Amino acid sequence: MLGRRGRDWLPALFVLVAFLGLWQAIVKGAHIQRFLLPAPTAIWTAFSSNQGQLWHEGWVTFQEALGGFAIGCTAGILVAVLVARWDLVGSALMPYAIAANAIPIIAFAPITNAWFNPLTKTAHMVIASVLCFFPVFVNVVRGLRSVAPSKIELMRSYAVGEFTVFRLVRVPTALPFLFTSLRVASVLAMIGAIVSEYYGGALDTLGANINQDASLFQFEKAWAEILIACILGIGFYLAVALLERLATRWQPRVEMLGA
Amino acid sequence: MNAVSIKGISKQFKGGTTALEDIDLEIEHGEFISLIGPSGCGKSTLLRIIGDLIEPSSGEIQVNGKPARQARRDHDYGIVFQDAVLYEWRTVSRNIALPLELADWDRTRRQKRVDEMLELVELQGFGEHHPWQLSGGMQQRVAIARALSFDPALLLMDEPFGALDEMTRERLNAELLRIWEASSSTVVFVTHSIAEAVFLSTRVVVMSPRPGRISKVIPVDLPQPRTQGTREDPRFFELATDVREALHLGSGDAPSLAEGIA
Asked: Rounded to whole angstroms, how far apart are CA atoms B258 and B262?
């Protein structure tokens, strides 16, 4: 009935069901307070009775994440191409980019909410795009520069110009690096949008509602909103992973969702 | 006009190493020349100078009657490295077609030539495979097919079989000779292996290091076409011994034991 693929997923599915069952049992059995940890069934009730509103909130937040992702990644790619081409620009900018990649950019959220109106999508898109920019930039530069010298030597024997070498050799070499960073960026974009909304988001955003519901002790609803965030986050990641598989079909497959 | 004309070529690298000193060599069309010598004798450097991938410090080099730079621009040679250097994102067919794409051949002509090349190196049916699906020997055959795809007059090879096991190496030697006869190109072949140099060549150029120079040129008068039987010919062993002794003399090693015992 289930194909071989289906059977591969069964152990993981079993773990999920067991985990939920254990959670339910512990909460009910130990009479854990609602504000500490609601039961899965309570979360599900909150989820299904507010579905319309929850999906709407999720969609608004997702738009911010997607917009930030698109802007940040595009900018990262463009600047990376410039940097890889002109060594001088590279040595000037790379140290800062690598440092920026390591700092918690999300710490700037209250600042960007002061610069831009936090009730609009723009403020949160800004944080999301900055979060996406640095990993994409650093990784694409690495990818463009990581070509084995013998591959370039081969191209020299064909007497072709620099742009042809870039197009035919450097870009395909950089693609796996690019997609790894895109997967990372998709996660960061969602984090950026939601956390930025914690510090001031419109009433129809996910982050603002999680924050508000938690402070009003409506924890089942807060968990339901977190569930939506998880679904959207995972969906985004998988969409990028699917794009990666389509674009780099020539890569030998080692594992499905590995980094 | 010779295929390759090398006059007084020298090369100093930054830092003072003299890779090559005053090299003179004339290679006629249709020859199979091996460059053999220990590490540091400059054989790979010389090969790259012929291919205009390295610039000489002094001297003159003509390929096909033109300066080496012009020959490179005119795609007069194909080159095969020790590492096959195939592009992983391209199939075998598209790897072989790479120089043809760069020369703006149209699709039909390209496909036809790729099929001919696959047949030549006996890899029919592997066109849609990717490089990682092939063994080392097969990858090198793809690299050879690619180097020959545009019918160059000259083939430059830098230890192409160095990374392969002995049996695959001997088999590919025979295949290379078959291809050489079929295409009547000139081959300059860098190798570490004495047996390989003698088996393949019309002349063996023995080089020595510090500074890199030609110490001896040994013509190989074994009959053509060479077969596996050639490797067991007594003349094969004589020539291999000549090459070995020239190598030892060149590197300043002690003379052979037979001569040492008074």
From this structure: 9
pLDDT for B260 beyond 50: no
The per-residue pLDDT for range B150-166, each reduced to its tens digit, is 989 999 999 999 888 88
Nearest by CB to B73, from A150, A159, A164: name it. Answer: A159
Element (H, E) at B22: strand B18-27
Task: State how far the alpha carbon of A118 is from the alpha carbons of A125, A202, A257, B41, B101, in Å.
Answer: 10, 7, 35, 70, 53
A118: confidence class by pLDDT, cuts 50, 70, 90:
confident
Q: Would you state the pLDDT for residue B234?
A: 94
In angstroms, the separation between the Cα of residue B146 and the nearest Cα of chain A is: 11
Q: For chain B, give every domain's residue range.
A: 1-76+187-254
Residues A12 and A113 in one domain: no
**Considering only CB atoms, which chain B residues are within 8 Å of A166?**
none
Does residue A194 lie in a domain region? Answer: yes
Domain over B1-76+187-254 is classified CATH 3.40.50.300: yes
> In total, how many domains does chain A have?
2
CB A45 within 8 A of CB A221: no
Range of the domain at A15: 1-32
Distance separating the N- and C-terminal Cα atoms of chain B: 49
